[in-house]
Amino acid sequence: MINLESILYVFSSVLFIIGIKRLSHPKTARSGNFIASLGMLIAIITTLVSNSIVNLELVAVGIIVGSVIGAFFAIRVEMTQMPQMVAIFNGFGGIASALIAAAEFLNPSEPLLSFSIATISLSVFVGTLTFTGSFIAFGKLQGFISGQPIVFPGQQLLNAIIGISILGLSIYITLDPEQINIFYLIIAASAIIGFGLTIPIGGADMPVVISLLNSYSGIAAASTGFVLNNNALIISGALVGASGLILTNIMCKGMNRSLVNVIFGAVGLEQTTGSDGETKQINIKSYSTEEAAMIFDAAEKIIVVPGYGLAVAQAQHAVREVAEFLAKNGKTVLYAIHPVAGRMPGHMNVLLAEANIPYDQLKDLDEVNNEFEDCDVALVLGANDVVNPAARHDSSSPIYGMPILDVDKSRTVIINKRTMNTGFAGVQNELFGYDNSIMVFGDAKDMLQKLLKDLKEL
Amino acid sequence: MDINIFTVFILAVFVGVEIITKVPPTLHTPLMSGSNAISGIAIVGAIISTKVGGELGTWLGFTAVILATVNVVGGFMVTDKMLKMFKKK
Q: Do B30 and A222 touch (CB under 8 A)?
């Protein structure tokens, strides 16, 4: 069945692949995104032309309304809000796939085979779960819902029962497609499990969840492709599914945790039972920005370690001003980016790019870790767990084994935090009590602006 | 059931893994929002489902068209917004 329609769908799939391939370098990335969007345009026009659409006006209205909403979000969003934006968009993609599968089930274009019903169930399940899960993730990131894990007794048992029920109902409906009520039950149960799987996950584990939901939105699109027997959906869905899974895997490695542990571990709960070593008293040294400025003045090599606190304080421009001032005075300034810093993969990179910090100054964990040995000052801004040395040696710590940035090997570590609260993993950071550590308390943006003023006055 | 669509799916997963592992960590957020836009390909299915017929099917399709378009337009635009900020010294 070679016709122009299927050739054009293959062509748009090729453009998606070329587009993603060009994301392998910042220089070619922007054109890659353009090429992918061209592929999408071709796919949409092909669909409109090759199907005798009954309701062209309705489709046109839908596209216009969707474009306006999408453009509004895209223009308005701040770089600090990217994680919740991606979360909610994942949800839209998921629910769109579920709706299409539902339409196909309720008004089949041809009598449904068992295989079609099975893929429809899969599509509805994954799509709906993605929608409600993304909604919770969005709420947690935006602050509507507490970032703390929400847990209750029997939670995992309940999720397991719902999961098994969905499987059972799907088998049932495949055998007896007349049971519309069963179909609605599948939708409801999928929605509930989407909530159920996301509420126990803490804020710091969001990079994993967003990556996973990203993958689900691809799987939902691919299974809808199976329902409609459409290669463009299958190929694109497979690409997105693979992308999300790879990112999920990178994030899990960045925390040295398994996916199962992230989803069911509920890490980040306040530890109520203080285990043996927890009462260890740490003595900290708190400095003013003036005193910190003198340390910077004497330093030659400075490494900045940004974390989520930087994003919350919107301090990306302030850090660039400080770094530029230091660089102008002949100092070397680098940025060390931990894979799970922030709330989504690459969050810090985008934030710093927004502040016009050249991407070649941003170094990955592997690249930067041996740079700390001859570093004079490591400036930790709103990062906590990713610089906690307990991950290297304390096997009782919840973050034990997580690859960390070895800031403690620098001559001096200057840590900016708002308060002495623990990080999201709920553990006190022994780094703060080290001999070479200095705390400078305050909001990251205020602190950096004061620091810059003090540096200039020296 | 058509074995060809499975072949296509499996091969596409391998292509995906191959090209996506080459994306540097610096570009992981744009990768995510860009691939998110690509998953808006569901719009193709949404347009098809508006003509499947039946009142309910049409409205489900219409809603899906809106949501998928938000995904496509918002996703590509925001990715472009991010990517144009990435500068070398």
A: no
**CB-based contact, A65 to chain B, within 8 Å:** yes
Closest C-alpha to A227, from A124, A131, A129, A132: A124
Contacts of A211 in chain B (CB under 8 A): 32
- Residue A385 falls in the annotated catalytic set: yes
Examine the domain organization and report whether A138 and A198 are in the same domain.
yes
A53: left (phi over 0), alpha (psi -120 to 50) or beta: beta
For residues A208 and A315, state if they share a domain. no
The beta-carbon neighbor of A226 closest among B5, B19, B34 is: B5
CA B86 vs. chain centroid, Å, equals 23
Domain of A195 in residue numbering reads as: 77-265
Within a domain: A334: yes
Cβ contacts (< 8 Å) between A71 and chain B: which residues?
73-74, 77
Residues A259 and A363 in one domain: no
| pLDDT > 70 in chain A, percent | 94
Question: A306-343 pLDDT, tens per residue?
Answer: 999 899 899 999 999 999 999 999 999 999 999 999 88
Whether residue A233 is found in the same domain as residue A350: no
Is A209 a domain residue?
A: yes
* Listed residues A265, A296, A330: the one ending a domain: A265
pLDDT at position A422 is: 66
Cβ-Cβ contacts under 8 Å, B44 against chain A: 43-44, 47, 230, 232-233
| A276, A360, A376, A385: the active-site residue | A385
| Alpha carbon of A99: minimum distance to chain B alpha carbons (Å) | 6
